[in-house]
Structures are given as structure tokens and as C-alpha cells.
Amino acid sequence: MQLTMHGRIRIGKWRSFTATQIVKPGEGYIWAAKTRIAGLPITGYDRYSSGSGHRRWRLLGAIPMVSAAGPDVTRSAAGRLASEIVVVPTAFRAATWTPGEDVDTAVATSRIGHHTQHVMVRVHPNGRLRDVLMHRWGNPEGSPFALYPFGVSVEEEAVLGGITIPSVIRAGWFWRTERQNEGEFFRAAITDAVFL
What we know:
Number of helices: 2
Helix content: under 10%
CATH class: Mainly Beta
Number of domains: 1
Structural class: mainly beta
Number of strands: 13
Radius of gyration: 16 Å
Order of helices and strands: EEEEEEHEEEEEEHE
Shape: globular
């Protein structure tokens, strides 16, 4: 699936971005984006493929700003891929489903790389997707790498590519805790979806 999106991402402060993402459920993704810092263009990507994760961001297309890889980045990227089930409903069949603790929840379990990922999906009484929540490996705000609450809220849905998917989402660390506002770092509107 290929997604086209725009929105705001928090890198120090909130900044506008445009991005394209390709997701192959259970196998990998690449999210390529453009933004600006101090008026200067920043381009880069986050990806998970062939069992490894990587981030690379460059200023003016040439000056390295961020390049990260290794076991911690890979484990975090695998968690992100598991959470992408929210925007790729055709991936639902690839997960093992069990009832959640609440009547409006279910848990999708999938194996990505060397890690088993559990993603709780919550729906509205009318059946519309509400949010996903998981414990994802990461180091939000420079914290030590560990499992932290991570979530994606679905604000709106749309029919794109003939399938109903989330069209306005918010995401961040410490989801559904008292630190959710400080952990939120991503707000996006998905404007196109192509099923490959």
C-alpha cells in the first residue's frame, strides 16, 4: 500500500511536513518525508526492511543530520510496523486476534522480525476505528530505550483506494497516560492510498 500524507511533526517544535509511505504488512515500510527547519529543507526517511530498521535525515539534501541503525532502532521500527495495522486494514488477516480487556477492544498479535508485537485496537460503538495502543520499544525525548506506551488516534476516516481507512490521525508516546500531550509528535491527514 502506498500512502500520501501531509501534516505536522514535532521536531523541537511543530513543523509542517509532506510524505509518502509504502507499507507491506508484516514485512516492512518506508516513510519518506520533507520538512523545514529555520527555513531550510530537510529530507529523509524512516524504514524497516529485511529485518532491520534505519533512519536518515539530511539538510539541503546533502548534509547528514541524523543517521541511526542498530538493534534498538530495529526493534522500535518493528513496533511501528505493527502499529501500521491502523492504516492498512487488509493486514488484519495476517495477525492473530484475541478479545481485549474491554468490550470495545481486540488485540492483534504479529511476529515482526525477532519480536512479537501486541497491538490493542479499540472501536466506537458504531464500529469505526477509534485508536490503537501498544507498548513499543523506543527512547522518547532521549529516555533510555525501553517499552513505552505508544498510540495512534483516528480522528476521521475516508474511502481511499476503494477501502475505508483512517484519514486523519495523531500519534505519540505515553498514549492514554498523563504524559500524552508531551509525548504526541505526529499529526497527519492521509490524502491518497494506492493498494499495490
